[in-house]
Amino acid sequence: MTAVEVNFDGLVGPTHNYAGLSYGNVASLSNAASYSNPKEAVLQGLAKMKAMHDLGLTQGVFAPHARPDVNVLRRLGFTGKDSEVISKAFKADPVLLRACYSASAMWTANAATVSPSADTLDGKVHFTAANLNNKFHRSLEPTTTTRLLKAMFNNDSYFSHHEHLPDQGFFGDEGAANHTRLTDAHGKQGLELFVFGASSFNSALPKPSKFPARQTLEASQAICRLHQLKSSSQLLLQQNPAVIDQGVFHNDVIAVGNANVLLCHEQAFLNQDNALQQIKNAYLGEKTLHIIEVPTAKVSIEDAVTSYLFNSQLVSLDNGKMLLVAPQECHNNGVVNTYINELISADNPINQVQFFDLKQSMQNGGGPACLRLRVALNQQELAAVNPDVMLTDSKYQQLSLWANKHYRDKLSNDDFADPSLLLESWQALDELTQILNLGSVYPFQQ
Ligand SMILES: NCCC[C@H](NC(=O)CCC(=O)O)C(=O)O
Predict the structure, then answer these.
(1) ipTM
(2) What is the number of structural domains in the chain?
(3) Catalysed reaction(s) (predicted)?
């Protein structure tokens, strides 16, 4: 039986908001303080999951995290009952409170790095949650992410879970957003590309000068060791620091790979000709490797960042062709739309495009690819996954009803002072752990 790639999409949490927390992420900064619509956000995400399922792809659901993170507020000196902690934090530092309310765990491309069993020496699928230590609100994620991964992939015979890397900038790790895998077929040994923004220890390597490089070389090296990656399955490349300074805060804002196709901007990598040659030399497959470089003359970095063209998902369909799952913003951008039409009619495996309205997530800098974590699994491994986290028609109905029942359609700054938002959110998540059969994964359930 053949292996499949499962996309685990982050279900948007009930407190999704725009707090402007991600310096270096243009969308996050420019939408700060505007009000959000969590209900629309979760339904937009569910509609994408359902569409993937309807195409015959295998789709999973990744639960949100419990917010606000009251424990971290207590660590920071706010005392009393939960409602008091919230009202004190709101008065003292509303931005801090919003960070503790962030639904950023929705971007599951940053949840973890995953290495399929065909690439690892012990033949297991390896998972390491990303420490996300470059941003305070995201640094709150790894412990719960690991707990969720263990509840989803709960079988030691097939799955190996590692503790996240040390919580320190030297080992800054942003997960699969800086990781892609090239292979003839999902079940075959692949070449895993690890794209780092800078090195912590080697000062000879260039760095961006304005915005932070969130992924370090040393973090990527540690993941390769932890995952027992075959040496022929790993290639480490540096992202072009000049584009990080233009808002390309993760590699998946400038490149996307799937099977034997790598679609990237011509400014994606440092010393790009050399980087692409290394990829060609290291590719293990027998099929033609298609590297499609998009020239600046056709799509500028600014257009790439505002449209999120490269944050499209690239998925293989049963007919052997590939579909580009793009954000609506690509359709709205004339230049990018023209390029996509050219791409799908050219001689390469990508021959279709579908656009999705993911505006609520996009306004925080998260497109289709940010919202999913890819896990390639053979049939035995797939059978060992917690079946309740897989999307079916009835699971979709159940989750839509759940979201409509619990989510608000407007959140603005003053709402974060209201302790009933905490109660409502935790009640929703408590119910969700039953729908997805996750057990007691949240701190408030322990
Ligand atoms: N892969 C996409 C990640 C987007 C995410 N945005 C945020 O966290 C914005 C949150 C805010 O500003 O409220 C980030 O930058 O890590």
Answers:
(1) 0.99
(2) 1
(3) N(2)-succinyl-L-arginine + 2 H2O + 2 H(+) = N(2)-succinyl-L-ornithine + 2 NH4(+) + CO2
- At 329, which amino acid appears? E
* Whether the predicted model's global pTM rises above the 0.80 cut: yes
What's the pLDDT tens digit per position in 331-384?
999 999 999 999 999 999 999 999 999 999 999 999 999 999 999 999 999 999
395 lies in some domain: yes
What is the Å distance from ligand 1's center to 141 Cα? 12
CA dist., res. 269 & res. 291, Å (int): 13
Q: Which residues pair with 264 in a beta bridge?
A: 255, 293
Strands 261-265 and 112-115: unpaired
Q: Rounded to 5 degrees, what are φ and ψ at 128?
A: -130, 120
Q: Which of 77, 73, 129 is nearest to 99 (CA)?
A: 73
Q: Quick one: pLDDT at residue 31?
A: 85
Tell me the C-alpha distance between 339 and 189, whole Å: 32
| Residue 303, domain member (yes or no) | yes
Which residues have CB under 8 Å from 309's CB, separation 6+?
A: 294, 299, 303, 326, 330, 336, 339, 340
Query: 410: CA distance to ligand 1 center in Å?
Result: 19
Q: Determine the atom of ligand 1 nearest the C-alpha atom of 311.
A: 1
Q: Which residue's C-alpha comes closest to atom 14 of ligand 1?
A: 22
When computed from its CA atoms, the radius of gyration of the chain, rounded to whole angstroms, is 21
Q: Smallest Cα–Cα separation from 69: which of 89, 49, 41?
A: 89
Give the model confidence (pLDDT) of 148-182 as tens digits.
999 999 999 999 999 999 999 999 999 999 999 99
Tell me the three state secondary structure of residue 143. Answer: helix
In this structure, which residue's CA is closest to atom 16 in ligand 1? 22
Q: Give the whole-angstrom CA distance, residue 162 versus residue 127.
A: 6
Instruction: Write the CATH number for 47.
Output: 3.75.10.20
Helix (H, G, I), strand (E, B) or coil at 250: coil
Q: Which residues are catalytic?
A: 174, 250, 370
Report the nearest atom of ligand 1 relative to the CA of 214: 16
Contact between 175 and 412 under an 8 Å Cβ cutoff? The reply is no
Instruction: Compute the distance from residue 220 Cα to the ligand 1 centre, in Å.
Output: 21
Domain residue limits at 196: 4-67+102-445
Q: Are 190 and 181 in contact, with CB atoms under 8 Å apart?
A: yes
- 91 assigned to some structural domain: no
Query: With DSSP H G I counted as helix, E B as strand and the rest as coil, what are the percentages for the chain, rounded to 5?
Result: 40, 20, 40
Low-confidence ranges of the chain (pLDDT < 70): 1
Three-state SS for 54? helix
Residue 79 included in any domain: no
Is residue 370 lining ligand 1, measured as CB closer than 6 Å?
Answer: yes
